[in-house]
Design brief:
single chain; globular; 319 residues; binds flavin mononucleotide
């Protein structure tokens, strides 16, 4: 099935910049969309909650101004991520603002709820729901999501354990709608691989932490540049749900990354002040960061992806 209008012919390369707790804010989102890939942020990053309206106006106005001055290369659309979980007490109010501002894409995480999808559909918006297995993918589509983000093993933040080949392969047996692959994608070659596997494109998080526009400390950015797959630890300790984190940040917190206790799912808290504090000190990261060599402006990182993507396609066609 073809991509929905909002994504068709609007992207320079087939990629969505993933929402990053704490890190994604308007300068990052605007730079991503101007560079030609979907830019996104979690609604919960706007604190206090009233700030969300300012952020939506700022992003909308900046992208409209860009389109007026560059009609030959309009910006890609942007997305807001909503955590659909009982610990998110802001969901209703944040969603109402997305409806008011007609946010083109909404990415839902952790819970698939029909009312959320209905609200976004009321103005013609599109919902992508992120899932770590085929069972959740079925549930999300049954509840009315338009498309899926398949979060495979090695993804930064909360991540699944399945091989991307298995996950995309299973979903594509029954679902022909929009499907983006997430997990350790940090090069143009990997973006093309996601398409070869059957996805419509890539969903890229950790690589954007090492950009000038990202709201992360210099030490965190340096950790992403220095890190490799072997530096990533998979643990449920910090949120009650398994995720991937940089080993050095766990050591700096005085913990032994090789002997971490199990997290308690009952204490799951996404987006609250205690979660914000935890994510500031414990650095989420996926396994793909071996491909990240420097902190760059977003435009330069997307340029690298586009160059690598074109070269990988040419290599395959020539072969
Ligand atoms: C630091 C960090 C914060 C994240 N925060 C969120 C979030 O708030 N909401 C969400 O849906 N996903 C979040 N994710 C997951 C990403 O959206 C995405 O699935 C992941 O980064 C993709 O894998 P990659 O980092 O290997 O590219 C986060 C990931 C990282 C690394």
């Amino acid at each position: 099935m073809a991509l929905p209008e909002v994504l068709r012919n609007r992207l320079r390369i087939p990629a969505i910049a993933a929402p990053l707790f704490i890190i994604s804010h308007p300068p990052l989102v605007i730079a991503q969309a101007k560079a030609g890939i979907v830019g996104s942020f979690p609604a919960l990053n706007a604190r206090p909650a009233e700030q969300l309206e300012d952020w939506l106006s700022e992003i909308g106005e900046a992208l409209a101004a860009h389109d007026r001055s560059h009609p030959e290369r309009p910006a890609a659309p942007f997305a807001v991520n909503q955590i659909v979980h009982k610990s998110n007490t802001r969901l209703e109010a944040d969603l109402a603002l997305c409806v008011k501002h007609q946010v083109p894409l909404v990415i839902t995480s952790l819970g698939a709820v029909a009312e959320v999808n209905d609200a976004v559909h009321s103005y013609g918006g599109i919902v992508l729901h992120d899932v770590i297995n085929d069972r959740f993918a079925h549930k999300a589509i049954e509840k009315g999501a338009d498309g899926l983000v398949a979060v495979a093993a090695g993804a930064g933040g909360h991540a699944g354990t399945l091989s991307p080949f298995a996950l995309v392969g299973e979903i594509r047996r029954w679902f022909d709608g929009p499907l983006f692959l997430s997990g350790a994608i940090a090069s143009g070659d990997a973006i093309l691989s996601a398409q070869a596997m059957g996805a419509d494109g890539a969903y890229i998080g950790s690589a954007f932490i090492a950009t000038e526009e990202a709201r992360a400390s210099e030490a965190y950015k340096a950790g992403i540049v220095a890190g490799h797959a072997a530096d990533i630890v998979y643990t449920s300790l910090f949120t009650g749900v398994h995720g991937n984190y940089l080993r050095a940040s766990i050591e700096a917190a005085g913990l032994d990354p090789d002997a971490l206790p199990t997290g308690d799912p009952k204490t799951m808290n996404f987006g609250g002040d205690s979660a914000a504090k935890a994510w500031r000190d414990i650095w989420g990261s996926g396994q793909g960061i071996g491909a990240v060599d420097a902190v760059l402006p977003v435009a330069a990182l997307v340029e690298r992806f586009a160059t690598e993507y074109a070269a990988a396609r040419a290599r395959l066609c020539a072969g």
